[in-house]
Specification:
Distance between the termini: 20 Å
Number of helices: 6
CATH class of one domain: Alpha Beta
Radius of gyration: 16 Å
Largest sheet: 9 strands, mixed
CATH architecture of one domain: 3-Layer(aba) Sandwich
Strand order of the largest sheet: 2-1-3-4-11-10-9-6-7
Order of helices and strands: EHEHEHEHHEEEEEEEH
CATH topology of one domain: Rossmann fold
InterPro entries: Class_I_gatase-like, ThuA-like
Organism: Deinococcus peraridilitoris (strain DSM 19664 / LMG 22246 / CIP 109416 / KR-200)
Protein name: ThuA-like domain-containing protein
Strand content: 25-35%
Pfam families: ThuA
Oligomer: single chain
Structural class: alpha/beta
Helix content: 25-40%
């Protein structure tokens, strides 16, 4: 019997500095290459249709800052708690809806700073046994190095270590950079990489992000 095609919803908007429409196209292409049927929305109104939301196996938030209504927040969290995957990157997921602490509880973290803004830093693979990171090695990247408040219950996949160049008091701080977690029956994946579209061209980043999307959608063990 042929497996039904997975369906994903990408919700894009918010602060334009993170190029939400460019990232929507990039993420859509990644998913379609894995034979996922993609629906792209540039409005949060899509979160008002609970019946439609339950038809997706994956939701990708791509909405930096902004405000989520109580109804939309509840609908989103309910569908993820019920088993829909939730996966995203950088500010589009980790700096979305800053006043919604229930949303942050689901995502497992919240951006608070990027000392030095765009800079060179190193990424370490923390968990080499997880199917998302298996076989991957540490790498160097030029991007915003996110300092985040992070839920200690996350399963950390990758980390980055801060130096004393821009905020000496955090020198040596090891910060989770990519993680997974459960929210009810839903799988959640997050990576803080993704300030600019060209970062997805890095070969290790491309594998990490593609696998993260697939894992959240239960298309990767």
């Amino acid at each position: 019997m042929t497996q039904p095609q997975l369906r994903a919803l990408i919700i894009s908007g918010g602060w334009p500095g993170h190029q939400p429409q460019q990232f929507a196209q990039l993420i859509s292409r990644m998913l379609r290459e894995d034979n996922v049927d993609v629906t792209a929305s540039d409005t949060l109104d899509v979160l008002g249709d609970t019946d439609a939301l339950q038809g997706y196996q994956l939701i990708v938030p791509n909405w930096t800052m902004g405000t989520l209504s109580a109804e939309h927040s509840s609908n989103l969290r309910d569908v993820v708690r019920g088993g829909t995957g939730f996966a995203g990157f950088h500010g589009g997921m980790g700096d979305a809806f800053r006043t919604d602490t229930d949303y942050q509880f689901m995502t497992g973290g919240q951006f608070v700073a990027h000392p030095g803004n765009i800079r060179d830093y190193h990424v370490d693979i923390h968990d080499t046994s997880h199917p998302i990171t298996r076989g991957l090695s540490g790498f160097d990247l030029r991007s915003e190095q996110y300092y985040m408040h992070v839920d200690p219950s996350n399963t950390v996949l990758a980390t980055t270590t801060f130096d004393d160049a821009h905020a000496p008091w955090i020198a040596g701080t090891v910060m989770p950079l990519a993680w997974v977690r459960r929210y009810g029956e839903g799988r959640v994946f997050y990576s803080s990489i993704g300030h600019a579209p060209e970062e997805f061209e890095h070969p290790t980043v491309a594998v990490l992000h593609r696998r993260g999307l697939r894992w959240a959608a239960r298309n990767l063990v």
